[in-house]
Amino acid sequence: MRFDVLTLFPDLFRPHLEQGITRRAFESHQVDVHLWPLRDFADDNYRRVDDRPYGGGPGMVLLAEPLQRALAAVRDARGGTPGPLVHFTPTGRRLDQALVREFAEGSGAILLCGRYEGIDQRFLDRHVDLEVSLGDFVLSGGELAALALLDAVARLQPGVLGDAQSHAQDSFSDGLLDCPHYSRPERLGSGADAQPVPAVLLSGHHAEIARWRRERALELTARRRPDLIAAARAAGALGAADERFLASLGL
Ligand code: ADE
Fold first, then answer.
1. Is residue 155 annotated as a catalytic residue, yes or no?
2. Based on the domain organization, do 149 and 180 belong to the same domain?
3. Is the CB of 199 under 6 A from ligand 1?
4. Would the CB of 62 count as within 6 Å of ligand 1?
5. If both were cysteines, with which of 25, 87, 162, 189 could 31 make a disulfide (CB 3.0 to 4.6 Å apart)?
6. 185-229, pLDDT tens digit by residue?
7. Sheet holding 118-119: strands in order across?
8. What is the mean pLDDT of residues 6-27?
9. Boundary-marking domain end, from 121, 154, 187
10. How many domains does the chain have?
11. Helix, strand, coil % (nearest 5) of the chain?
12. pTM
């Protein structure tokens, strides 16, 4: 799949594409990322791509014309590869794992990272297919949101995570938050303060371990994100044993 990123700050992306477990997906071009510096599409010697808003007010607005030229160049380079134009903005649809999965199974997209006070609305009206938000807070631009999407998509590609099952266990993969994880040593620290690993995880009883993990995930999700429990119920993803467990907690 191919992602083309329109940004004023291409250097923000490079270190993230070259490190960590997702590096494999980017270096192998499994997730093929192309960076397009917006200033390359300015039409003056100052490489200017923003100006003051009509009607006055603070801040600057990204100009429609350099964006039109950049988009034409990207579409040309993508040839026949389809892909929506995605604009990152706090007013967009909240990014979640279901949307990440859609991108991970698609052929890519063009990612538009806004900056300043905004982008000329006429460009957005004419060209944008989807607006995406990272959450209910305001970033200084869309770059971190685009990186979040690229990272989440890359780790879902086959062969990127060491253990093929790792993302089956992720938070949200089955609509619930993930259970806690433990590794060596069996007892951390000493004396009255020591923290043991929950005994069931050392028992070797696979069914009991699976049940314990499920219950921890249910409990954490019910306490922190009751909205996700309601959604899992509506999707028929909770069984009778899950409901008995939640009822035993009064949740
Ligand atoms: N740009 C500025 N804030 C943003 C947010 N919360 N999500 C996505 N893009 C943004």
1. yes
2. no
3. no
4. no
5. 25
6. 999 999 999 999 999 999 999 999 999 999 999 999 999 999 999
7. 50-51, 61-62, 118-119
8. 95
9. 154
10. 2
11. 40, 15, 40
12. 0.93
